[in-house]
Amino acid sequence: MKAIRSNRVFSAIAVATALVVGGPAFAFTACQVTDTGGIDDNSFNQTAWKGVQDAIEDFGIEGRFLESTAETDYEANINSLIDGACDIIVTVGFLLGDATRDAALANPDQPFSIVDFAYDPEIPNVLGQVYATDQAAFLAGYLAAGMTETKIVGTFGGINIPPVTIFMDGFVKGVEHWNAAKDDAVEVLGWNLEDREGLFTNNFDNLDDGRAFAQNLYDEGADIVLPVAGPVGLGSATLADELGIDQLKIIGVDADLYFTDTERQHVYLTSITKRMDATVRAVIEATMKGEFEGGLLVGTLENGGVGLAPFHDMDGLVPDDLKAELEALRVGIIDGSISVSD
Amino acid sequence: MSVLLDKARQRQTRITGAVLIALGVLIAVFFAPDAAGSATFRLSRPNDVWPVPNLVVPGGAFIYVVSALLVFLGARQFARGAARWSSLSLGVGLAIAVAAFLVWATVGKSFSLSGMLQASLVRAVPIALGGLAGVLSERVAVVNIGIEGMLLAGAFTGALVGSLAGGVAGLLAAVAVGGVFGFVLAALVVTYRMDQIIAGVFINLFVLGLTSYISSQVFQEYRALNNAPVFRAIEIPFLSDIPVIGPVFFNQNLFVYGAFILAGLATYYLFHTRLGLRARAVGEHPRAADTLGINVYRTRFVNVTVAGMVAGFGGAWFTLGSVGRFDEGMTGGRGFIGLAAMIFGRWHPVGALLAALVFGFADSLQQKLALLRTPIPSEFLAMAPYIATIIVVAGVVGRARAPAADGKPYVKE
């Protein structure tokens, strides 16, 4: 860990303050445990929580969340919900994998669903929600390679774990696909496919890391940066805002950041969306109908679980040819004629 | 007594010498074989007024020169027991060893050296200001664990007031709120003689809980409250055009200049004014100070409150000086690293600033190394700042002494 995880000590008070106090009794209660970074991170936790909020609106259920401010909170947060009459407990994040498994095995009658984790073997009362984000990131990489003027693009991650690096994998492969198709030599800084090492902030909290890391990539010539670090990427957006979008553009992750980071929406070339809100809502709906089943739910380009957001303000900057090629790639990935994994 | 001391010093010098020789040999053995080719360091950025050619260093030759220098320095220490130069030799030795490492990592590639140095300064700011706040309060014998909370409070206030009333108002409010928490800490530990560690932890917990709550409940709904302007870099005319040094030192935002100015002011105050002398007397021997008519309680109140204001200023850097918005726990433990910088800087403002710069340098170095694809895992690189600090502190700084009454409440008789 790069930074001292000081906030560990604070977990107790944060739990107390973050608990949304329940009102009248509802027929169905969906509970959520977030990863670190806060429920308001404009990206990962917030998107998953939006799934619960959508379910509240559509089905009139009750929703509750507990924020994890440190990795030591996971187990305590899940356990405190088990006594809380939750009809389903949604845990958000790869790092909650072990804590969720332990709680699920200890409470076989409690339905769980975890975002970003697949268990092998499957646990009967846990439904894993995973996303083929590399499919969408592949498109983003191809787009970035087609848009860069310096012929250098950059990326950095939060922590070197699969749900983060899958974005970076797809991004690099997309750039390589462009290089092969156009006989070009666009370089990606920050992630190396072979030795699986790259640029990582080692946290999802320090927004100023996002700015510093983007500045580092910019100094080395990158004019498009993909931060895969939840709210930390918002710091990168501030830098792009200051430098101007002709100098630096940002590709968002998880949500369409054009809508969630509205203050700096003009710096986003596009976003690699991971529709956790859609899958979380679907899981709640299935559970309400008594159709809950353990196993795996995979979000893909085909079922809309992952996707590339519109270019919004930058639509005019993206050449029509490139748009057409991206659409062809999308179709190719869906029908399997283009592989994003080799 | 003096014979014993001499012997201990001689042994230390011998160890320093041996370490330097070992370092020189290791560098020659491990780095030189892979260092065929040259390393390129970019010194100027595209928009510089006077572009400077890149610094191209021939890898193998440079590493052999460094290695020879290290062995020479080490042998000199070992043979002559020149205790007077021991710290200096180790400092110089470590610096050139880091340079050799950088050259080795960069052979056949290039990176922006001026960008890295500029980032070092930027990243050092919150740590330096946190450390400075620590110096100011510990010099009057109040241990300030609450710096992290004060930074966070400054960051939060800066974002909130900055969004509503502009950057300058946000900055002033952040300083004021920092001062309030300093005053609260002083009240708890001076007036009510609460345990100083517990009082500081209380401030950290309180600020984290409160700001996280408001951030998730209020900022979510009212986004305009969390959209503060960012202070841009101020170019100092002429000076900022100097190659390399210009962009690093004279094209930064007001927080960077502020950290340097405050470190200078604090040094002047503590060591060259009557008030500063009194403050230090209160930290070393409050009973004696009291006997001489110094108001111990008031001195502690004033200094700890000012320390809080410095921390509030440092906290505002996170929002008004960097990213323009607040997010839960965004200070990420920098207050605690600031405390470490204070100790490494021997409770001296300039020392704390230099220690913070070492942290900042190691931090930006680690980022560059990650891009250079050295065969070192990124997690190890992330540890680099802390390992560097431990080496520097243990070897160069030596034993540090806290103010004698540090952490002890004073009861007036």
The ordered string of helix (H) and strand (E) elements of chain A is HEHEHEHEEHEHEEEHEHEHEHEEH
Give the C-level CATH assignment of the largest domain in chain A: Alpha Beta
Strand content of chain B: under 5%
CATH class of the largest domain in chain B: Mainly Alpha
Q: Low-confidence stretches of chain A at least 5 residues in length (pLDDT < 50)?
A: 1-24
* Class computed from helices, strands and strand pairing of chain A: alpha/beta
Number of helices of chain A: 11
- CATH topology of the largest domain in chain A, by name, is Rossmann fold
β-sheet strand percentage of chain A? 15-25%
Spans of at least 5 consecutive residues with low confidence of chain B: none
CATH superfamily annotation of the largest domain in chain A: Response regulator
Percent range of helical residues of chain B: over 70%
What would the keywords be for this entry?
heterodimer; A: 342 residues; alpha/beta; Rossmann fold; 6-stranded parallel β-sheet; 6-stranded mixed β-sheet; 11 helices; 19% strand; globular; B: 413 residues; mainly alpha; ABC transporter involved in vitamin B12 uptake, BtuC; 2 domains; 15 helices; ABC_transp_permease (chain B); transmembrane (chain B); Branched-chain amino acid transport system / permease component (chain B)
Question: Overview of this structure, please?
Answer:
The complex is a heterodimer of chains A (342) and B (413). Chain A is an alpha/beta fold and 342 residues long. Chain A has two domains: 147 residues, 3-Layer(aba) Sandwich (Rossmann fold); 167 residues, Rossmann fold, CATH 3.40.50. Helix content of chain A is 40%, strand content 19%. Chain A is built from eleven helices and 14 strands. In chain A, a hairpin with a 4-residue loop joins strand 8 and strand 9. The longest helix of chain A has 21 residues. Chain A is globular, with a radius of gyration of 20 Å. Chain B has 413 residues and is mainly α. Chain B folds into two domains: 107 residues, no CATH class; 272 residues, ABC transporter involved in vitamin B12 uptake, BtuC (Orthogonal Bundle), CATH 1.10.3470. Chain B has 15 helices and five strands. A three-stranded mixed beta sheet of chain B has the order 2-1-3. In chain B, helix 4 runs parallel beside helix 9. The longest helix of chain B has 30 residues. Chain B starts with a helix and ends in a 16-residue tail after the last helix. In chain B, 52% of the residues are buried. The interface between A and B is large, with 55 and 55 residues.
